[in-house]
Amino acid sequence: MSDVAGVLVRQRHRISEIAGVLRRYGFARLAANAAAATGENGGSHTSFVERKADPELVQLSAGARLRSALSELGTTWIKFGQMLSLRPDIVGVDVADELSKLQASVPPDAPGLAEKRIVSALGMPIAKAFATFDSTPMASGSVAQVHRASLDDGTAVAVKVLHEGAEERVISDLELMGALATYAEANDPELARFSPTTLVAEFDTMMRAAIDLTKELDSLTTFRANFAEEPDVLIPEPYPERSAKQVLTMELMTGRPFADRASLERDGWDVDALGRRASNIYLEMVFRDGIYHADPHPGNFLLPDPDHIAILDFGDVGRLTGVRKEQLEDLLLAVSKRSVDGVTDAVIEITNAPADVDITALRGDVDLWLSTYLKGSVAGLDIAGMLRSGSALLRKHRLTFPSDLALLFRVLLRLQGLGQKLGTSESITDLLEPYLRKMMLERLDPRRLAHNLARTAKSWDRLFTSLPDDVRKVFGQLRAGTVSVEFKVHDTDGSVPQLVDGILASASILAASQLFSRKTGPLIGGISVPGVVSLAVGVVTWHRLQMKRPGYRNTVTRIVSMVKPRS
Question: Which positions are catalytic?
């Protein structure tokens, strides 16, 4: 916490500025947290709004106010707002919709600054690095600008250069965001339930990658290798010898942008085939490669000719780990089968639901959600409505999806929007069906079943191998007095053993229900073995407790008493 305090003191003037903006837009709680972090006495939330809020601004929706406030705070905060737009499960659907409108428009650097950065980063004069270099940028984004240039052999290239001071500003803002998130999580229970430190940590990783252009170079290399056998997919070739952390040189792609259906057809494109191929490229990235371009808006596609699709800007990339991919498959298969229990179990697993979640209520809401959106066939499914409603469901139960899946769902939503823009006849759900069938077949693949069985056997082997050592350690700690459990109970009627048995039986049965619902491994036939053991302990303990009850009669005695004629 000392590091946090140091950051708060060092950046107290910036914090006061942030608090002032938040107060003016009527965000009393956030402003109070920011002010308190510097030791200021902000007063009550109500007095904040009364004294500092702009009456006209307060009339706007919460989403519109937050979008405007983040715009005033600068590029890093705008990018943070864009990330929050992916999280309607946290900020709510209406706020997320407003934040999705955020645009980080940064003017280009003063003439000559980009050239100086290139010379410093590459360690060579511009004339040696490039045959030609256009000092006027062709585009300027939030952290970098892009210039046209050419190599000695005449190859046209695009040179991406970080803005002057971008690294320093971003790192300073990230440091401050981390400190404020830590402070808020420790002092505001309402904000703490959204785990702001985790959100900021994920954003920190994303932004540090954005200001290190070697990350984008690595992504270009990876995607080119993944699509090497598909010549219709064009991805810019990077030039590592002309790249560094602040500079990225890559092939300059040309072509016409994605436009409306009529103009594309007029120029000879098969629009339905085009939309289908663009979506399949992304589905291959997700389900085949586990790494995907995370920003499929029309501006990141070019059409050099009717037989090729070029994809631009690999600074924003999503990844799916093996575990997450398996969880996603569980969810998609459960949705495709309309399985309420399957979807509920997948949601609990993916969100790492806390123990106090009301699973019965969650299952009921999942049932309603499925019946609302899956009445008929999957074709023509309202992906946007389904995701919005699903996010509201998660928010209601205080569950949050991990950021990697939230990003993936945005990609699927944008692909659906791309198809609608082109007026294609197939939806993303139509294109998903072959992948769903493949998933189901892979689940039944004997090799996969054998692999899972071997993994389960290894889990049991590790358990039984380590158990003696673990038990020996516990007893060693008990003998050494480093671990102790002491109960002092005045038991006049000898009821403590029964009380202990009752608690043990209840706890074992409750634990079993959690282990079964979460499918805690090792698993046999999809059933949690620890859950079976826990249930057995509970049942045996409960039976033993019943036997100790006064007047207890076993089953045989009861049957005999029922059939024995009364005298």
Answer: 295
